[in-house]
Amino acid sequence: MSPRAGLSLQRQLLLWLLLPQLVLWAGGGLLAYRFALSYAEKGIDQSLTQSVRALARQVKPIGSGLLIDFPKAAQDVLEQDPKDRISYMVSSPPGKFVLGNQNLPQPEMPVEQVGTPLLYRGVVDGKPLRIVVLDLDYGDDGSTQTLRVQVGKSLQVQQRIARELIADMLVPLLALGVLLSLLVYGGIRRGLAPLTRLTSQLEERSVIEREPIGATQAPSEVHALVKAINGLLEEVARHVRQEKRFLDDAAHQLRTPLAGLISQVELAQQEARTPALLDRLSKVHTGAQRSAHLVHQLLTLARSENHTHRVPLDLAALAREVAREWTPRALSAGMDLGFEGEQSLMVKGDALQLREALSNLIDNALRYTPGGSAITLRVERSESGASLAVEDNGPGLQPAEMAQVFRRFWRGSQQPGGCGLGLSIVREIARRHGGEADVQTLAPHGLRVVLTLSETD
């Protein structure tokens, strides 16, 4: 199971830099709204206090009665705006309605001092109000009475003022926050640019290149990373060179004795006189040829896993050339080997490895297809880039065998000469070219092995 990829470094930096900014902006907006409500309430309280005192001055005691000099025009002015209505009530004694809006609620707490306004909250018709009450004494010394004047104002005004203040404050802050976020994003991209360049250099270079990766104008942390990568690449390149020398030495040390053994056996077969000796020499010759083929395949597989040097090449021309090389063997086996497809198809690939893959596929088709069959080498364009296929009209494979064909050392037939590595090499070469190898059955019978290459030039 492959590990799950986490957030990129750029996204993590953006998250840790912009998330606190968003939290602070939201918290600041909430505090600013509360402050705006508080200041708006203070303004309303001051206005209500002035209104209740002005209204109280319009109530004049006359003997043991009251003269309320509050004309109808003044009442209309107080109540003309339904969204900002100022309600009032005059009562004497307190709570006994005389004038105004008798729905104004009385304060829950007693008025402690006559002549001092008391502010409280109430609800009228389901709407919250801010109310001020002022008690005054009037009358003679022997018959003192208390007059209560109340003035209330809707809190919708307070909320509207708070919203306006918040809009005036937070909209510019939001614009500044967006600008700051863009600056932070640009700074992070600029700061991570050395890592992007380092990634491009690593993707474009080969592990056997000796020149170190440059990291000019990069932060010290990136310099340390580049130094570590250069050391690692140098170590890998050293091992690759050692392995390449070993493979070359092994190829020479193994092929030469096997070639000599095959030659000596062939000479012995010419000089042998008895059928039993000829039979034994034939088995030795077959085993030596199979060993030589196995050594060649093992070395090819090892080399294909080491390094792929991809350069622009004409895949169709390469396929036609390989087909011409194998035509004499196909004719000697009584088979028809042909080429079909594009006349020219440029790809990025390793010519030696692609030639080896095609040779393996043609060799398998010639080895396991009966005489008189037709083998077709086909080069076509595909959605991913290019496809390279070898088709035959032989017996093909059983469905249970299709999933096993790319396993190393698996053989679909016990005919002499094969070693079960050909298709493994083909698949490895396809993957080295960013593609894949697949095997398909043909109707009414036959087999098709396809290599897909991911890049065209």
UniProtKB/TrEMBL annotation:
Enzyme class of the recorded protein, top EC level: transferase
Ranges for domain Histidine kinase come to: 249-457
TM stretches of this protein: 169-188
Task: Enumerate the UniProt keywords alphabetically.
Answer: Kinase, Membrane, Phosphoprotein, Transferase, Transmembrane, Transmembrane helix
Q: Which GO terms describe its cellular component?
A: plasma membrane
Cite the EC number. 2.7.13.3
| Keyword presence, Cell inner membrane | no
Q: Name one GO molecular function term.
A: phosphorelay sensor kinase activity
Catalysis: reaction(s): ATP + protein L-histidine = ADP + protein N-phospho-L-histidine
User: Which InterPro entries does the entry link to?
Assistant: 2CSK_N, HATPase_C_sf, HATPase_dom, His_kinase_dom, HisK_dim/P_dom, HisK_dim/P_sf, Sig_transdc_His_kin-like_C, TCS_sensor_his_kinase
Quote the subcellular location field of this record.
Answer: Membrane
Q: Which PANTHER family match?
A: SENSOR HISTIDINE KINASE YKOH, SENSOR PROTEIN QSEC
What is this protein called in UniProt? histidine kinase
The organism encoding this protein is Hydrogenophaga crassostreae
